[in-house]
Every structure is written in structure tokens, then in C-alpha cells.
Amino acid sequence: MTILRENLDTALETAGWTAVCAYTDLLPEEGVCVLVDGHQIAVFRTFDGDLYATGNLDPFSGAWVLSRGIVGTRGAEPTVASPMHKQVFSLVTGRCLDDPATAVPTYPVRLSGGAVEVRVP
Amino acid sequence: MTRLVVVGHGPTAYRLVETLTDRGFGGRITILGEEPRPAYDRVALTSYLAGKSAEDLTYPVPDGVVLRLGSAVTAIDRDGRTVTTADGHAEPYDVLVLATGSSPFVPPVPGKDLDGCFVYRTIDDLDAIREASAGATAGVVIGGGLLGLEAADALRGLGLETHVVEMGGWLMPRQVDEGGGAVLRGHIESLGLGVHTGAGVKEIAADDAGRVSGLVKPDGETIGAQVVVFSAGVRPRDELARTCGLAVGERGGIAVDDGMRTSDPAIYAIGECALHQGMVYGLVGPCFTMAEVAADRILGGEAAFTPADMSTKLKLLGVEVAQFGAMDGALDVTFMDPVTGVYQKLFVSDDARTLLGGICVGDATPYNTLKPFVGRELPGSPSELLFTGGPANMELPAEAVVCSCNNVTHGQICSAIADKGLTDVAEIKACTRAGTTCGSCVPMLKQILVKSGVEVSKALCEHFTYSRAELFDIVRVRGITTFSQLIAEHGTGRGCDICKPVVASILASLGNGHILDGEQAALQDTNDRYLANIQRNGTYSVVPRIPGGEITPDKLIVIGEVARDFGLYTKITGGQRIDLFGARVEQLPLIWKRLVDAGFESGHAYGKALRTVKSCVGSTWCRYGVQDSVGLAIALELRYRGLRSPHKLKSAVSGCARECAEARGKDFGIIATELGWNLYVGGNGGFTPRHADLFASDLSTDELIRVIDRFLMFYIRTADRLQRTSVWLENQGLDYVKEVVLEDSLGICAELDAQMERHVAGYADEWRAVLDDPERMRRFVSFVNAPGTPDPSIAFAPERDQVKPVLIPLEAVRS
Ligand SMILES: Cc1cc2nc3c(=O)[nH]c(=O)nc-3n(C[C@H](O)[C@H](O)[C@H](O)COP(=O)(O)OP(=O)(O)OC[C@H]3O[C@@H](n4cnc5c(N)ncnc54)[C@H](O)[C@@H]3O)c2cc1C
Ligand code: SF4
């Protein structure tokens, strides 16, 4: 996964990347859900402005809701808590910090101009 | 080498010698004991009749100590420093210790020396009583004190029909007052013992053979008995001291100073024979302390005896009796339950705040819980402490002794819990010895554990070390308006799903604009963030407010049409309104547009906020009703709608005492009276149901609203996260909350009033505010990059003519 803070120059490679929204569509410490090739991807912007992307499916409840969870930190790790039963996932690794046997997928996300792009394998 | 001579070998002498040898006393110890056996546990004497052997009761004798049994000392030559025994043996001493104990007092009644009369002090006495009882049918004990009742228990155990004769007006006059004595009497009589109080002894009657045949009372009545036991008190054995000219008390006892030294510096006196500051101690605890003090002095130390606590707690004939502190006071409070035979009395100072002492019969719990407060301010009103066991948050002082058997203080237990991370009673027992002997403090140990647990978890989460109530005050006093400011100044990290909603709720309670404005939106749990209730498939349910449960047919039709048009599953709630299920995020604004246009507003079913004020139909229609319950319910619901609180708030109003609205199951419930309204608070359904407590009676509507305003605001200020009013009220104590709200004991009511006025004035419908603002509306899409696309994962199936969610099997999800 890649985290890119500010507008980079134009030499970004475009293959495999999909623009999903404007950076300004994201609010600090909130998530949104985007649909890319039938995949539901939760995209988060942290307080510092960093971007993360994970799957939207909450593996504990089976509901597609992770983008609606509360974004915060555990220690230094940026996290999201499932809005259903509050299991906390690392935004960096996708691993569930309350149950390390469970994880959600993570996706590369970057800023290209004013646009947020994710890459779905 | 110092020659130490000890006269008497009872428990006190045993403890002295043990302490000296343990501490490496270098002199030579000689003990001269009158009884034919070494010292034994006199406290456990009665167990000898129940089958214990003399050996079982006997204390060990340390090596190197010379013990002369059956040798009563008859004279002390203080100039020649020698004692002489009855058999003519002379024993020189450098230091002499008198530990001669006491002897039973036998009143000078005719016949007291007859065959069949006994005292109850030594193993020999018990052997004699046992032998006499073999051929007897009835026995009588003279003296209804602690030892008399113990003797009576013994006679009963030996199969005798047993009577107790007490000169005083009631049993155990030294430990309990008249009321307690009466309750105790009930217990004793129910065991089949005859109790004769206020009765003296005229004489002990004899049969032709000169053996005891009965006890004649002054009124001439004779109690037939072949065994008589005198237990009319004890007298210190100070005869040796008197004859050799040592100072003795007017009413007996060998006078000693704080170091247990008599008027002759070479002679100490300890135990029941000693008189310290005018007191003779008849309990083994202080006697042991005296032995330790004397041992220390003999070894050159400075230990001093201080007047001892004479509190007693015992189980006599299966009845708990306890007395602690003073036995009178300016005021007293009594709890009495004649059915179970419980009598409890507390003596307090004239302002009813300081505990002076107490008496318990039948249930000695107050002894365990309140004895540590003697001489201190009580943690609650005396009657509350007796009737309810006191508020849950009763704080014990650190130096209060929790386990009297092993002398373990509250402070020691708390530090053991904290330092060693103890988590249960078994660990406390192993670590501190508290609770290992009689076990009566075990309930207390549990409470202490619970309390320290609560203290440990006071911190809200890893981001804030404060409790919710503390954060509330920080936000209020500092005028903080954003989470970022609060966490930057008073926390760490960037928050989590625990602290963010708490702070969101605090900010909302203090009136900081719309809950989706600016940063606040990111703090909200999903329900608040979408102003709807998330369901198991990720859809939401919608609940429009129907104040008091009153709705026009036209509005009912609108709800029906909306539900039909959006395909929502429809259900009537327990709070007298209608819940519409299965709405997708992007449908919520469309649904609400229709509802708001028809005059509905948010019902806050999603918030930790006021839910509904349920009502019965009341006096307008009901032939029993005495007030307009619907009118009041609507007024209250409109007043408190949108009020954010630590947990949800529910209310109800009933139009008369028949209580059809179930108001006493609510956080605040109102029941109409002929004169106005009764307010009940702290009710709860759910997991731990609780009936609400009466808070105030016969209020006018204005008074009622004022009281509820303050009650709610005080709760919002001080409760923990997700703490319903029921638990909060129990923690705070009903009386305390009454004082704050009804009497303004904290002087904050004006603030509470102003805060509620701000809430009422600042109320605006949250849903209308969303519909009016495109920025807020932006959140209501399933996919930002495909706003028109519904979430393909959401599917429904029919059930009973409506829809139900179709869920993906979890196994499929997890793999
Ligand atoms: C039945 C019973 C139940 C009790 N229950 C309790 C209770 O539950 N709790 C409690 O705290 N206390 C209780 N007590 C009181 C407790 O037993 C006494 O406080 C304790 O025994 C005092 O010990 P002592 O060594 O000072 O005196 P004692 O036990 O009286 O011992 C003194 C010894 O000195 C000997 N002696 C006396 N004069 C001479 C002499 N001139 N020469 C040689 N030897 C002499 C005596 O024969 C005796 O053996 C009870 C007492 C009795 C009798
Ligand atoms: S509580 Fe009283 S007034 Fe209300 S419906 Fe019942 S009977 Fe009627």
C-alpha cells in the first residue's frame, strides 16, 4: 500500500489505477465506500491527511459497512472500528487488532492531482 | 542470668512466655501454675464438652522453660524476692509476673456450696459438671451474660432441660440494650430454654441427701434442677498482690502502668488480673496485647498498652450477637425485624453524622461494615445504613480494620490488590490472611475488589485517563468545542470508537450545533452519523417522533405510504411509535423528505438521547384518570427531545395509580395523583430490570418540570459512559441526588436550569437540518463514485407479507 500526501508530479504510472473521487470528497477521520469493478472498497482519510483503503466487508457481521466505522488510533496505528460490533482493524495491514486471526484486504491508494486513485488487482 | 518467675499458667502467661522465647530472652523462666495441666485455650472451653480433648486445647510449652503444675503460689516476699507455693516450695526471682486471671464470682446465697453447684471456668469444672449431669434431668445457670449463655448451651448439650436466671432486666445486659435483649430472648426461648429475667436467687434448695434439688426465686417459685452453674461475673485474682502490699483497685485488679508494671518495679501483672487505667479486661485479645507489652518491657523495650477496643461479636446458641463502641449516644436509630429476629441499633452524635457505637442481635452485618466508622463521620444516614446496608459507594477509611480476626486493614487489602494485581477473594485470602478465620468479612472483601476494579477502569480508554464525568467537566469548564482541542490538550492519539462518541455526546449535551457539523460528524457512531439505526445487513431503520404516542389518522397514513413506497418492514415499537426497517443509506434523505414535509421530525431512536415519553390515555378518556397524562407526556417529550445523555433516556406518564403506562420501569416516570404528579426515577427494563424510586410527590406541572430538568442535567454531568440512570442512581445514592436536586445542596441548580433552558431554546430537528444542507446530504450515498447505485449486497426475501434481510453466510465471508 502506498500513502501519498500531496500533489505529486504528473509522471505517475496510470495502469491499474482507478480514480474514485476527489480528495475533497474525503473528510478527516471519515471513510467513504467506492465501487471498483464490483469490489466495494472503503477509503479513509486520517487526521494527518494520509489515505488508506480496505475492503468494505466486515468479516464478523457479514455486512458491507467498514467505511462507516469510527476512524482513530490504537497506539501509533491508524484504525477503523466496525460500526456493527466494534472490532478494530488496522488501516495499515487490515489485520483485526482484537482477533489477529482475522483480516480485511487492503488496497494501494494514492493521490493524483486532486483525485484519489485506488488499484484493484 | 535473670530469673523470671510467672505466677499462673493461663492463656496470658502462655503468650508472654512464647513471646519472650521467640524474641530470644536469655534468662531462666519458671512458671508456677495452680491447675493440674499446662495452659489451654479457655475461649474454646465449651468445645471440651462437645468432644475435644484437654490435649487438643492445650498450648505448647516452649523448650527450656520450667513449668511446675499443681503449685499454687501463696505468698510473695518482695524484700527477699521469693515466692512460696502451697506445698512449701520457694522460688527466688529477679522479675516476677503475675498472670493469675480471674475467678468466677459466686454470690453469697444460701446453699451455694451444696453438692451440685458449679462454676464454669476450668477443664476440671467441666469434668465435674459432666459427671453430675449424667444423673440429672434439669439444670439452671445463674447469670444471663455471655458466659452464662455459653454455660447454658453446654448444659443443653448435655441433655438437660435448661433454665437461665438473670438478675438484670434482660439477657446479656453488658452487650445489648433492652430491645436487643428481648429479641435475643426470643431466639433462646425458641431453642427450648427457660429464661427468667429480673429474677434474683433466694436460695438453692437441697433434697434429703443434701444435693441440689432446685433454685428458689425471691417470689417463691422453684425451678427444679439437679445442676446449678454460677456464672454471675468474674473477679480478678489479686489476693496475692493484696497480701504483699501491691497497689490494687477499689473494686479489685492489680494496678499497672502502661508498661504493665505494678507498684513494685520488679513485678508485672498481665491478663484478667491486671487493672489498667481503671479497666479490667475480660477478653482474651487485650490480655494477649498486655503479654506482648510486658515481654517487650522485660527485654528492655518501650511498648505501651493503650485502652483496648472491647467490641464483641459472637455466635451464641446459633445467634449472632455483637456490640461495638459506646452503648449510648445523643441519638439512636433502630432496625428491628421480629419475624427473623433481627435487632440492630446505632448510636450517633446529636447531628446524626458521627457513629458512636452499635448493637446487633440476629445479624451482625453492621458490626462488620460499620465498626470501622466508630468515632468517624458515617458514609450515609444511619437509617439508610441499617435498612439498606448503605450506599454502594460507601468509602472505608484506609486504617479501618476489615478482618478483625487477623487484624487486616482496608488499606492493606487495597495495596495488596493494587501491588500484586489480585483479582479475587481467594487471592486476597492467600496474600493478606484476611477472611481466613471466621469468614465474616468475605462479603466486604468482595465489595473492596469491585471498588478497586471500578477505580482501575476509570480511564475511558487508552486516549483519555479521565472518566466521562471528568471529561464533561473539562469540556464545560474550559469551554472546549472540538474533539481535536480536547484530545490535544487532555488526551493522547486520535481517539477511538469509545471516546469519540462520548465526546460527541458531551459536546451535544452542551449545545454545539448540529451533530454532523464539521469535525463532529467523524465522532459519531454510525447511528448518529446517519441519523438512523443500523440493522444486521447494513441497512437502517427510521423512527419518526410521535410525542406521547398520540398521532392523527392523516399522519398515520403518511407513515404507511412511505413504508409502502420504499418497501420498508413496519413494526410498532414498545415506546408507542412506528419503526420502518430496511432503508439503504441513499434512501434515508428521500424517506425523511416525505416525513418532514408531512410534519414529522427525528425521533432520536438512534441517539443516546431522550427516546419516548410513553403515556396512557389519561383523564381525557379514561374513567379512572385523575390527570391529563397524554398532555403531560407530549409536553415532556417536546421539552427533552434531542437531549444527548450518557445513555438513552426513557419516560412514561400514567394518568392514575393504576399505572397503565408502566412509568416505574423508566428513567423518569410520572404517575398522576389527585393533587398533581409523583415523580419516580431510576427505573429500567432490559437486562437488569429495576423499579423506579419515588423522588418527589404531588408536584405541580411547573414544579415537576423543574425537578426533571435538574435531575436529567445532573445525570448528564456526572454519569459514566453508557450508564443508565438506574445504576447511576444506585452509585450516587437516592438521598444524595435528592439533596442535590431538591435542596440544591451543591449550589448548582441555577446552572442546571440554565443548561436545560439552553437545550430547549437551541433545539432544531436534526433531519430537517440535514435536508436543508447539501454539505450534510453528501454523506448519504452508498458509493461516492456511483451515487445512484444501490448497494448490490443488500437483498430481501418475503416474510408474512413484508420483507426480511437476506444475509450472506458468515463462512463465505470469512474465507
Ligand atoms: C467459658 C469461657 C468462654 C470464654 N469465651 C471467650 C471469648 O469468646 N472471647 C474472649 O475474648 N474471651 C473469652 N473468655 C475469657 C478468656 O478465657 C480469658 O480472657 C482468658 O482466659 C484470660 O487469660 P488469663 O491467662 O489472664 O487468665 P486465666 O485464663 O484465668 O488463667 C489464670 C491461671 O492462673 C492460675 N492461677 C491463679 N492464681 C494462681 C496462683 N496463686 N498460683 C498459681 N496459679 C494461679 C489459674 O488457675 C489459671 O489457670 C472465655 C472464658 C470462659 C471461661
Ligand atoms: S393509568 Fe389510570 S388513567 Fe391511565 S389508563 Fe390506566 S387507569 Fe386510566
From TrEMBL, chain A:
CDD domains the UniProt entry points to: Rieske_NirD (cd03529)
Domain spans labelled Rieske: 18-118
Any GO MF annotation of the entry: nitrite reductase [NAD(P)H] activity
Keyword Metal-binding: yes
GO biological process: nitrate assimilation
Keyword line: 2Fe-2S, Iron, Iron-sulfur, Metal-binding, Nitrate assimilation, Oxidoreductase
Protein name (record): Nitrite reductase
Species: Planomonospora sphaerica
UniProtKB/TrEMBL annotation, chain B:
Domain of life of the organism encoding this protein: Bacteria
Residue ranges of domain Nitrite/sulphite reductase 4Fe-4S in the record: 607-744
UniProt: [4Fe-4S] cluster binding residues: C616, C622, C656, C660
Location of the FAD/NAD(P)-binding domain: 3-276
Residues annotated as binding siroheme: C660
Broadest EC class assigned to this enzyme: oxidoreductase
Coiled-coil zones: none
Residues of the Nitrite/Sulfite reductase ferredoxin-like domain: 535-596
Gene3D superfamilies listed in its UniProt record: BFD-like [2Fe-2S]-binding domain, FAD/NAD(P)-binding domain, Sulfite Reductase Hemoprotein, domain 1
Pathway membership: Nitrogen metabolism; nitrate reduction (assimilation)
One BP annotation, GO: energy derivation by oxidation of organic compounds
UniProt-listed Enzyme Commission number(s): 1.8.7.1
Domain BFD-like [2Fe-2S]-binding: 401-449
KW Cytoplasm (keyword) present: no
Cofactor note: Binds 1 [4Fe-4S] cluster per subunit.
GO molecular function, one term: 4 iron, 4 sulfur cluster binding
One Pfam assignment: NIR_SIR_ferr
Cofactor: [2Fe-2S] cluster; [4Fe-4S] cluster; siroheme; FAD
Entry keywords, A to Z: 2Fe-2S, 4Fe-4S, FAD, Flavoprotein, Heme, Iron, Iron-sulfur, Metal-binding, Nitrate assimilation, Oxidoreductase, Thioether bond
Family: Belongs to the nitrite and sulfite reductase 4Fe-4S domain family.
Matching NCBIfam families: nitri_red_nirB (TIGR02374), PRK14989.1 (NF011565)
Role description: Catalyzes the reduction of sulfite to sulfide, a step in the biosynthesis of sulfur-containing amino acids and cofactors.
Protein name: assimilatory sulfite reductase (ferredoxin)
Source organism per UniProt: Planomonospora parontospora
